[in-house]
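Blackboard transcription, Thursday session:
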Amino acid sequence: MSAVPGLKEDCEELLGAFQQADTVRFERFAELWRERRFHTVFYGRMRALERNKLTKKTLELAQQYFLPPYSFQIRVGALYLLYGLYNAQLCQPKQKIRIALKDWPEIQKFQQDLLDSQHYDAAYIFRRLRLARAFHFTAMPKLLTYRTKKKIEENYFKEEFKDPSNRVNSLITNDVLEELMNIHDHYQKMKCVISANKSQPDKALSLIKDDFVVNLKDMTLEHQEWQQNRMKLFRNAKETHETENKKKEGTLLESEGSERANALARIKYRSYSAVVEASKSRRHRQVQLESSESGSSCGKSPSRSKKTSRRPQPARGGGEMQVAKETVTRHIGMPIITEENSDE
Amino acid sequence: SIDMLMSSEKEEDPDVIPEDSNLLTLRIRKKNLERREETIIVDRACRQETLTYEMESHATGKRPDSPTDLIEEGELLLTLNIFYPVIFQKHKDHKPYQTVLVLGSQKLTELRDSISCVSDLQIGGEFSSQPDQAPEHISKDLYKSAFFYFEGIFYNDKRYPECRDLSRTIIEWSESHDRGYENLQSVKMEDYAFNDLSLKIGFPYLYCHQGNCEHIIIITDIRLIHHDDCLDRTLYPLLIKKHWLCTRKCFVCKMYTARWVTNRDSLAPEDPCFFCDVCFRMLHYDAEGNKLGEFLAYPYVDPGIFN
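(Written on the board underneath:)
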């Protein structure tokens, strides 16, 4: 299915903010939700058929974040997001959330985890969804449609949302450690039983390090902490790098932008009346209508006016744009491609 | 109280996108809406859209009158896409299909009865000399055999004595040489329900009737029945999506759907030529009913008849 434009970005932004808040409390999520007034995501005049389709796609997108391999916090955030979207939807009867059979045991495990770690608000939210019959239990996660697509859109995960793949942890789990502990104790006891002194094993029988299980546990914990610290450092570094970049690029772009605006206005005046939305593969270069910007820069820079006055058309275009700004700016403005920050 | 946290505080019109929204989705949607407002003069649901929406939702939430027809919990609901046989060239690229919902406990014969195909209604024979005697028997009554093919097994319709095993030819062909197909079996359609089958989602299967009219069937979804679905067993298999085909109109009046087609007609401007009943008789027969000119005439059933 073709995606809802902009929805993935909005959801990821909300989940990212939730992750940064470093909590799993529903109140926090609700604050973030209300800040963004996320319930308006279904607004916009559309007829029932289109609204049904849109809501289905929205729920499907949000549902993806609810499943592994996303980290625990993101999954809780996705649960809250699903709850919010399900209740905020405008379709009557409500569109449901599709859960595939293969994912259901994972979700049950997740619910058990929530109860064990006493995140009762999240468990309550999940229970509310179940009671409201919000789920469709399906065989396959995605509903198939038959439209020839120009390109198969690759679904990529945001790296920060994923749990760092912890091979060491998946090998040395709590269960394994417990087993080892038991076996170790049993072994020690056996040694005591067969040696002369019943309370202590024979010296000749001490072939292994006594506290090796404890050491193993400490090592795995250390490794996990190290990995988390590394992720945090990496994330912080990237953020500071990004903000620095933003400031630098901002000033550069402004002068470049107005020059380019003039060039575009010269070439494409009169033939452009609509905005062309960038395709998904070029989402970093979003096309924005900035009629006011080009208009003001045309008028403001007197040094450049010599260039522009040579060709009367763009100056007029600039003037017109400024006037038109007050009335309906959208469709008269020239499309200007601004370089948006490319992360990842 | 948790619900209150989500909803809007004051009266908001969901049709209006708020001005100061910082959601990217809404900004893009607003631009699209504004562009539509300029280019489209009258923004109203066309009849295709109304039909699609109606078909999708007309049965939601229905409950049966008699409690024996109520569908129980745990029933499976399958969504099948049944493709039309390719009659027109333009259908080769975007194959039109109809979507049907069936219950897991329903037998295959119920699905077979619910598939409406134009080839079932064909009337065979040339009737230029006796136009009033076009027989009442349509092909559906004459050729009752049909089969489904799922996962290597042919399910033949054997309810009537006239039904033949159409799949036998295929099985014999595959067994005659080592063609690489595992042993294909043939069983009776009426003994099996959908719950007994093992199926792949998205894999094309076949429905064949009339000997040579083939439809591809693809299963797009299997899920458990839900409280909000239509729970009246008698309404299943339920048609929820249908492709709209334009009907061919009479060449003369351009108003009525064509009922006759003529070949090698000295009185007609093109070959083949389509006529509605009235125009056909007025052109080809005189007041006494004598045949005028040379032509061959066949009764015609338009594929758009199911609109």
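Lecturer's comment: Chain B is about 20% helix and 20% strand.
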